[in-house]
Amino acid sequence: MKARLISLLVVTAASLAAQYQWDFNQNPIAADPGHWTQNGTISFGSPTTFSAASGGSIIYNQTVTGANANDYDPDATLALKSGGGAYVEYLRASQTALLSHSGASETCVGSFIAIEIDVPSSGFSQSGTLATIALYQCSSGTLSQLASTQASVKDGLTTRTVIWSNNLRFFIGGIQVLRSSALTGTTGNPGIGGYNQPSGSGFNGASVGHRDSVAPNPINGQTIGFSPLPNQVSMQWAGTVDDTNGIGLYTYLIYRGDGNGNNMVLLNSSPTSEFVDDTVQPLTTYTYQVQAEDWHVNTSTAVRFTVNTPMAQAVDRRRRAWTRP
Length: 325
What we know:
The chain has 325 residues and is mostly beta strands. It is built from one helix and 22 strands. The chain is elongated and about 70 Å long.
């Protein structure tokens, strides 16, 4: 399976069409008691740095707008000038939330969910450094690690966390690197912080926004075209856009099932309005389903179409035809 990138401009235009309004946006981050509650050691500036091992945090102290004040999208811009340090994004946090380093382990104060980016001291590169990404939960001072992974980070990348109900998705530079559907923390505000960050590193900016809960506009089924080969189905469609006040389109989801539309399984996602399925068999009927998904994980109404693959060696690739449902 592979997604082709020819229609990138269509998706870019779709993202720009949205008129989402952030609750709060600050760059550079400032000592602002009207929006941030400060905990621990903080050096405000460009960037704002949390250098002490005992940690520091700033927790948003206003009510996030939207249908649920505990469902939101906090973004932050990383400033990474050298290796070392932990960069923390707080979620559903109490105003006293603080994640810090003590000895060989982390400790916590308050209650919160947190995503920690741990940048290694050695092997740092401005072109990208492999960091450990850990998902934590602190409940009344007791810290538990829920998940971990690794991802490349570098100076200037933006982190984005979308949290709703018991679900979470975390992105670095527009790439999803961690997700969870088993969260238990239900209330609290977003924030940022960290510990042991070197001089010149930290966060350059932060934004807080409500979770958009409106689905993108549906794909026009009449624009779908497909071209079947014995072991490959190529498909394309006209790109759609998010709702008028939406956060913007993120990707398209492509599902496949049998000829009767049963057993639909997610094949892959595509950032553009075209996709190639290289896992089909000759002389087989398949049902495909395509949906648009925005950054806040709302999906459009599904559009389905059926494809029949020809027998092996029955098609000259130089003369392949495109068909509409």
